[in-house]
Known about the structure:
The chain is of the alpha/beta class and 362 residues long.
Amino acid sequence: MPSPKVDPVMLSFEERSVLAGWARRRKTSQALALRARIVLCSADGGTIGEVAAAVGVSRNMVSKWRARFLVDRLDGLSDEPRPGRPRVIGDERVEQVITKTLESQPPKGDTHWSTRSMAAATGMSQSAVSRIWRAFGLKPHAIETWKLSTDPLFVDKVRDVVGLYLSPPDNALVLAVDEKSQMQAIDRTAPILPIMPTTPARMTHDYVRHGTTSLFAAFDIGSGSVIAQHYRRHRHQEFLRFLKLIDAAVPKDLELHLVVDNYATHKTPKVKEWLIRHPRFHLHFTPTSSSWLNLVERWFAELTNRKLRRSAHRSITELEADVRTWINEWNADPKPFVWTKTADQILDTLAAYCTRINDSRH
C-alpha cells in the first residue's frame, strides 16, 4: 500500500547536527540512536515505508517517532516518564540523613551509626537509609588505619627516596631493602579442602605453630628481581651478613643505593663501620612510620597474598624451602613496581590531611 500523505520533516542546521551526533556516538543509547536515524531519513524525503525499510523497523515505529518529533522536536525523542510509585523521600530528608551521619554522635554510646539506629533517629526504613548511604558512598561501619609521621626530616627524606625511584642515578642499582620478620611455619589442624563448583577452598580456622623465621629481601626497583635470604633472627649481625650477600651478588662496578627503614639494626656502630669500608653502599632512610615509602613492602604483599596466606608448613625448614622456590619463580619473570607520584604530590596530599585534622572537632 502507498504511504499516507504526511507532513514533511524539516530540520534546522542545529537539529541536524544533534541528530547526526546521536546516531554516530557509541555511548548514545541504542533506542535514541535509532530514533535519530528515523528522523534523519524522514528529513531526507523518504516515505514511511522507505524509512522503515532503510532503518529496519516497522512502519508503525516510524510513524510514532516522526509524529513525536514534529510536535516536540528533539525533546520528543526522549522516553516519557514511566508509570510507577512516586518518590516519597524528599531532598530535605535525604540531607537530614547525610548531615546526621557525618556530624551527629550515634545514640546509646555506640561508636558508629547503623542502618537500624539511623532509621530510628530519622523515622525512615532501614532499606531507605541503606540506599541513601550507598548513593553517597557512606560506610559508617568501615574504618581504615593511617599514621602520620612525626619525623623532623620527613620532607627531606621523602624527596630523597622518591627522587631515587623517579630518577635513579647512572651506573647504580637502587634496592629497596627490609626484613619480613616473624614469618610463621603454620600447619592447619585438618587438610585444606580444594575449590569446587559453587564452593571456595576451605581451611580450618585453627592451626599449629612450628616456629618462625625472618626473610631479608632487596628489591631491585629497575628490574623487579629480588635478592633474598632467610635468617632465624634479625639482629644487626644478620643485617651485616645480608649486606655482604648483596655485595657479592652485584657487579663491583655498580654503586648501590639502599632504601631502608629506621630499624635500630640498620644504624649500629658495626654496620656503620662496615659501610665506611664499602663506600659504594649508600643508605637512604625512609621517614619514621612511613613503611609505605619502601617498595619492598609492596613485594612482601605479593609474597603474602600469593604464597604465605594459604600455605601450610610442618617446619621452618619446609617454609623456607617453599618460599625460596617461590622467589626463584618470581626472579625467572620479575615484575617491577612503577612509582608514579612525585614528592610534591605526596606532600600536597599529606598537607590536605593535616588541614582536615586541624579542622576536625574531635
